[in-house]
Amino acid sequence: MSDIIIETRDLSRAFRVGDQEIMALDSLSLQIARGEFVGIMGPSGSGKTTLLNLLGCLDQPSSGSIVFEGQDISGLSEREIDDLRLKRMGFIFQTFNLMPTFTALENVAFPMEIAGIPRDERVERARQILKQLGLIERIHHKPRELSAGENQRVAIARALANNPSVILADEPTGNLDSRTTEEISQLLSDLNTEYRVAIILVTHDASVARAASRRLWMIDGSLGQDSD
Ligand code: ADP
Ligand code: MG
Questions:
Q1: Hey, what domains does the chain have and what are their CATH numbers?
Q2: Do 198 and 33 meet the contact criterion of CB atoms below 8 Å apart?
Q3: Whose alpha carbon is nearest atom 21 of ligand 1?
Q4: Is 129 near ligand 1, meaning CB less than 6 Å away?
Q5: Is the Cα torsion angle 108, 110, 112, 117 positive or negative in sign?
Q6: What pLDDT is attached to residue 224?
């Protein structure tokens, strides 16, 4: 299997607003290696979220292509895309996006339920991941009974549930204080090594981006290499 897990070729996304066309992404070409940890920085409006949404198959490009694990995703059916998102990708958001009525354990087990994993197996795996993330004492707590940092760890555990090959994280520390931000950055770095999962992390915070092994800078929908 190729060492490149994600490749974009001349990826563009235009938005029409009134009679104006905004090039949110402008012919962006990028390669991410298997197991790589890439940090993407750049000013607000530079196209970071647009890029992650395209990589996560939440949006479609105006032109250009995305090759995921050797497959051009434009050739996949909706069903195949859903399957890819469920089993090959994990998502982490600034606002956690946990199910408020589910416990931590249920939140982490849920993607495994959708993937058809038997109950005992998914509960056991959810428990294991939560334990590894230091949340064994919190598995029966609901999001409102947890701190922001704990909720983000539950969300990270959920992202790992189906053993994805990549995690896409959009400003995952945007709602956290500086100490928790540091913990979560360290955790992502550890998980990148331990699970050999690639991470694409969008952040405003240079200290968070430092956890990544490669940093990219976005400006006006294009990429430049970070100077260090
Ligand atoms: P970032 O995440 O770097 O802050 P975004 O990817 O959200 O940037 O946005 C890039 C550009 O595309 C911005 O100019 C933004 O206003 C525009 N944009 C993003 N999404 C839409 C949309 N759904 N409709 C119109 N314009 C959009
Ligand atoms: Mg954004």
A1: 36-60+77-225 (3.40.50.300)
A2: yes
A3: 15
A4: no
A5: positive
A6: 78
- The interaxial angle of helices 178-194 and 148-160, nearest 10 deg, is 20
CA–CA distance, 146 with 125 (Å, rounded to integer): 21
58 CB within 6 A, ligand 1: no
| pLDDT of the residue at 77 | 96
Q: Whose structure tokens read 């931000």?
A: 181
Cα gap 160→89, rounded to integer Å? 9
Residues 37 and 192: beta-carbon distance below 8 Å = yes
**Torsion angle of C-alpha atoms 158, 95, 89, 161, degrees rounded to 10:** 0
Pairing of strands 37-41, 214-219: parallel
User: Are 166 and 6 in contact, with CB atoms under 8 Å apart?
Assistant: yes
Nearest CA to ligand 1 atom 22: 15
- Closest ligand to residue 25's CA: 1
Give me the tens of pLDDT residue by residue for the chain, a chain 228 residues long. 569 999 999 999 999 999 999 999 999 999 999 999 999 999 999 999 999 999 999 999 999 999 999 999 999 999 999 999 999 999 999 999 999 999 999 999 999 999 999 999 999 999 999 999 999 999 999 999 999 999 999 999 999 999 999 999 999 999 999 999 999 999 999 999 999 999 999 998 999 999 999 999 999 999 975 545
**Order of strands across the sheet that contains 214-219:** 89-93, 166-170, 198-202, 37-41, 214-219, 222-225
Query: CB of 47 closer than 6 A to ligand 1?
Result: yes
